[in-house]
């Protein structure tokens, strides 16, 4: 397989990315874009997952949202709305690759990336989707600069445990999603609680959907055994 660093040009900024291309005939290949968690510094882990897909003949695109990793921007100055622009930009970049089949493009999103994946699915034709511990955020936060520190982190967790946790843009978006969906939760996750994970699964309009749990796992899948278990679930799906 081929691993290729890429720079994805936005309106006055660039996103740092990595394309992972299978060693197959470079025509009409299915593809997956990875949306990372907030705030991820683990692109190598996503590239490893993309390589696992490449062994099955699937192209993978891993990239950093603005303010993360090697991309432009500064955390605390970027809003959810702007990150959605990044998510759509990466999606379009992948569809425009000459070897990618535009009719077979999926998303794998973790936590914040799962939230973004749901929003993208409302705007673009997503063939299949895997959401790992997908997050939710109050709609009132969407257009404001966001940081996950201090009181915000506490408020975020309180919201996810509240009776209002399934009233937001992402849950409304997933209600329109009809294609295959796999939702994966971590048994010991305190950041994206069970009611949110189950909420995504139950709300989705898809008739081909499944929810699975990784026993003993935390939100970040810090145990490599759990990380590998997730990767195997994703590749199988």
Outline the fold blueprint:
Layout: E1 2-9, E2 14-21, E3 29-35, H1 43-54, E4 59-63, H2 80-95, E5 100-110, H3 112-123, E6 129-132, H4 150-160, H5 169-174, E7 181-186, H6 194-203, E8 209-214, H7 224-236
Parallel strand pairs: 3-4, 3-5, 5-6, 6-7, 7-8
Antiparallel strand pairs: 1-2, 2-4
Describe the biggest sheet? 8 strands, mixed
Described by the principal axes of the CA atoms, the overall outline is globular
- The ordered H/E elements are EEEHEHEHEHHEHEH
Write down how many β-strands occur, each being a DSSP E stretch of 2 or more residues. 8
What does the average pLDDT come to?
A: 95
Please compute the radius of gyration using only Cα atoms: 16 Å
- Helices and strands: which structural class? alpha/beta
Extract low-pLDDT stretches.
none
- Which bin fits the share of residues in helices? 25-40%
Widest sheet: strand order?
A: 1-2-4-3-5-6-7-8
Distance between the termini: 21 Å
Give the number of helices.
7
What percentage of the residues does DSSP assign to strands (E)?
Answer: 15-25%
């Amino acid at each position: 397989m081929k691993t290729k660093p890429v720079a994805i040009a936005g309106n006055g900024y660039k996103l740092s990315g990595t394309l992972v291309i299978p060693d197959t005939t470079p025509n009409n290949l299915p593809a997956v874009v990875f949306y990372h968690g907030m705030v991820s510094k683990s692109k190598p882990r996503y590239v490893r997952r993309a390589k696992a897909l490449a062994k099955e003949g699937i192209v993978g695109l891993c990239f950093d949202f603005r303010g993360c990793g090697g991309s432009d921007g500064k955390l605390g100055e970027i809003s959810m709305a702007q990150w959605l622009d990044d998510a759509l930009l990466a999606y379009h970049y992948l569809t425009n690759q000459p070897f990618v089949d535009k009719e077979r493009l999926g998303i794998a999103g973790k936590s914040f990336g799962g939230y973004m994946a749901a929003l993208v699915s409302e705007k673009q034709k997503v063939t299949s989707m895997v959401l790992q511990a997908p997050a939710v955020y109050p709609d009132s936060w969407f257009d404001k600069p966001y940081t996950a520190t201090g009181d915000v982190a506490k408020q975020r967790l309180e919201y996810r445990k509240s009776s209002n946790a399934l009233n937001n843009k992402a849950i409304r978006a997933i209600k329109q999603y009809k294609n295959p969906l796999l939702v994966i939760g971590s048994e010991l996750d305190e950041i994206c609680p069970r009611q949110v994970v189950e909420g995504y699964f139950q709300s989705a309009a898809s008739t081909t959907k499944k929810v699975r749990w990784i026993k003993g796992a935390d939100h970040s899948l810090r145990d490599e055994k759990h990380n590998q278990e997730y990767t195997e679930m994703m590749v199988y799906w």
